[in-house]
Amino acid sequence: MALDLHEIEQKWQKKWETDKVYKFDEQSKKPPFTIDTPPPTVSGIMHMGHAFAFSQQDFIARYKRMRGFEVFHPMGFDNNGLATALMVEKKLKIRQNDYSREEFVKLVLKHTVGQEKAMEESFRGIGLSFDWDLLYRTIDELAQKTAQYSFLDLHKHERVYQKEAPTMWCPSCGTAVAQAELEDKEVESTFNDIVFKTKDGKEIVIATTRPELLSSCVAVFVHPTDKRYEKLVGQKLKVPLFDIWVPVIKDPRADPEKGTGIVMCCTFGDQTDMEWYMAHSLPMVISIDQHGRMTEQAEKYKGMKIKEARKAIIEDLKEQGLLKEQKPIKHSVNVHERCKTEMEILHTRQWFVKYLELKDEFIVKADAIRWIPKHMKARYDNWVKGLQWDWCISRQRYYGIPFPVWYCKKCHEVAVADEKQLPVNPLKDKPLGKCKCGSNEFEPETDVLDTWFTSSLTPQINGHWAEKTKLFEKIFPMDLRPQGHDIIALWAFNTIVKSLFHQGKMPWKNIMVNGWALDSKGKKMSKSLGNVIAPKEMIDKYSADVLRYWAGLPTIGEDIPFQEKEMVAGKKFLTKLFNATRFVDGASKDLGKVDVKKLKLWPEDKWMLSRLNNLEQGATKAMDKYEFSKVLNPTRNFFWLEFADYYIEMVKHRIYGEENESKKAAQYVLRKVMQDTLLLLAPFVPHITEEIAQTMFKDVFKEKSVHLEKWPEGNKEKVDAKLEETALLAISIIAAIRKDKSGQGRPLNTPVKVATIKVVEPEKVEEWAETIKQTMKIEDIKFEKAEALSIELKF
Ligand SMILES: [Zn+2]
Ligand SMILES: [Zn+2]
């Protein structure tokens, strides 16, 4: 029977599903272990990062199940919000504004259905042990209800407010965004030395990368200690091209080393402009609109796009002799992480979650969570420390979850939905009561909620918190949040914020932060670099278990370059596992019932059992600490380098020999090691272990799946360190004899007349004499005391 991994995998995936092996039983008496699964964005494709991270999450889920927990392991898809809408816009080459809101939402939803199906198939294909009946989506009714319920709860506790304020704005997506959605991007730009003039016509040169903002210039700043401009402070300067006069103000935020040391402040060019605007109560002048076009304020440049205006203004400055010099520079700008467009700061009306004053609390309270690996907590802390804005949660988009909010047409008071109405669509539904002013006429809020406003509620969605179920009490706080390090600021942080506001506690006990799957050279995989390796390709070529094996090799949190040679090695290992089991099965099939205490064990038997218990103890400790690579690597090495390479060879003579107690003991140990090895490997390579368990070990594995068997914890009492040490010596003697034989060109099973073993402490290995003799076909064996190990063979 040849080993066909693909056939095995499909067979067991189907069987697990029909047998509901991973079904979560709410009524179970077992303690629950609950996992807050990250919902991948519905893009139609499972990429290598998914395969990598989800496999690691699955190792833990399977392990906990074997440890006797009732594992709550839902799968989710993120089909809500901007990411989804942008994906559909890009795929179909459309823009939301080409459609009515209703049409656009329908289009996006329709498109995501097919994408989700394709993804579901890929995720099933790597054998993840989800209870698919718990599947959730971030746009479905339950998520809508939960998000709106969360809003109502925050509203009740005055944690949300609405304000006209400067906000981060993406001109391409046409919406406000939150600080967490910004990315730094290094861009090439030009420093333009532009001439401002004093009242008496003196030229003052100011360097700027954004001359298109000249019409919204409200002040210029110099550093308080900058002698060059001391006399200017308090005077007014004329802005070039426009009839605008602005004051010169001193402020330590002006960098004397940058440009000419004197800098213009426009409302708003960047974050510092905002700070100046607040600190010095400057007027607000708006020259860019919500779609990234110049406003009336920009006079003749009105209607131009930002970059067009920049070009035109530079031309005009040149013509009028107001441009002194241009220097190319590279600097870092804020871009929108979704579309990479440079951010603007616009003054708009938005909804915010108020939390800036709680930064310290967010840091301290999150210490109650175990961060795996530990250093990821520092990334979280740094993010929280750097927070400068309250959380802007409104998006000026069509697709997303609506605010449960209306405004009174008469007095403009906010009216929120009643809990009973959820999920509510204010565009169609009406508030249940009248406004305080007596009016019955309302205007709906047309903005939608930030997608993270909903994604930050995954524990609450999965526990049906908004429906006030018992399930929520059972699963919250959740045991484990697995997620990537790139979204600590977005997902981990926002989820912590929400749970703290709603439940007054942390959402999980543990957070396991996975690293990235990189290309073979350690670069991030990306379409533009052409270095993307699709998991499907690797599964087709090697199998899902082999891909999972690869995901089990690195330490948690570590980025790992994808090396195909590891897939080759993984496949080799699985083949070895399969072949060795078939040997063991054949050699021990007739064992029957044994009384373990009465077995006559040889030193190698005791050694194997000691090693096995040692390994199991270490594996249990490591898995409890989420250090799965400290299980997979040692188990593979034990199985291959000790059990297969030595133990099996040592006991062959007993297996093929007479029926007696010695044979029984060997058979017992062979079977025991094989059986426990399967259990240790089951979380990592679930298909092949199931196949072996169900076809060859049905006598010992009584559950319907190996994944419902008990994890072998190992027994300290059964570890014999001394024996393991002498075993190493016996092994090195056998290795030396093997080397000698093959060095002389003789087959390994060539009989030896006399073997003289010179060794430092002969008394230590004498009890292994019979084992060594039988393994290496030696007639007579002699031990002599010597300074170092050496052997002499006579044939
Ligand atoms: Zn954008
Ligand atoms: Zn009113």
TrEMBL record:
For this chain, one GO molecular function annotation is: ATP binding
GO BP annotations, alphabetical order:
valyl-tRNA aminoacylation
Q: What is its EC number?
A: 6.1.1.9
> What stretch of residues is annotated with the motif 'HIGH' region?
40-50
Q: Which InterPro entries match?
A: aa-tRNA-synth_I_CS, aa-tRNA-synth_Ia, Anticodon_Ia_Val, M/V/L/I-tRNA-synth_anticd-bd, Rossmann-like_a/b/a_fold, tRNAsynth_Ia_anticodon-bd, Val/Leu/Ile-tRNA-synth_edit, Valine-tRNA_ligase_type_2
Q: Which reaction is this enzyme known to catalyze?
A: tRNA(Val) + L-valine + ATP = L-valyl-tRNA(Val) + AMP + diphosphate
One Pfam family cited in the UniProt record for this chain: Anticodon_1
Which major enzyme category is it?
Answer: ligase
**Residue sites binding ATP per the record:** K527
Q: Where is the Methionyl/Valyl/Leucyl/Isoleucyl-tRNA synthetase anticodon-binding domain?
A: 605-755
List keywords of the entry alphabetically: Aminoacyl-tRNA synthetase, ATP-binding, Cytoplasm, Ligase, Nucleotide-binding, Protein biosynthesis
Q: Which SUPFAM superfamilies match?
A: Anticodon-binding domain of a subclass of class I aminoacyl-tRNA synthetases, Nucleotidylyl transferase, ValRS/IleRS/LeuRS editing domain
Q: Where in the cell is it found?
A: Cytoplasm
Q: Where is this motif: 'KMSKS' region?
A: 524-528
User: What's an example GO cellular component term for this entry?
Assistant: cytosol
Q: What is its main location?
A: cytoplasm
Record-annotated Aminoacyl-tRNA synthetase class Ia domain positions: 11-561
Q: What the record says about its domains?
A: ValRS has two distinct active sites: one for aminoacylation and one for editing. The misactivated threonine is translocated from the active site to the editing site.
Q: What does this protein do?
A: Catalyzes the attachment of valine to tRNA(Val). As ValRS can inadvertently accommodate and process structurally similar amino acids such as threonine, to avoid such errors, it has a 'posttransfer' editing activity that hydrolyzes mischarged Thr-tRNA(Val) in a tRNA-dependent manner.
Family membership: Belongs to the class-I aminoacyl-tRNA synthetase family. ValS type 2 subfamily.
- HAMAP family, from UniProt? Val_tRNA_synth_type2 (MF_02005)
Q: What is this protein called?
A: Valine--tRNA ligase
Q: What species does this protein belong to?
A: Candidatus Iainarchaeum sp
Q: Which gene encodes it?
A: valS
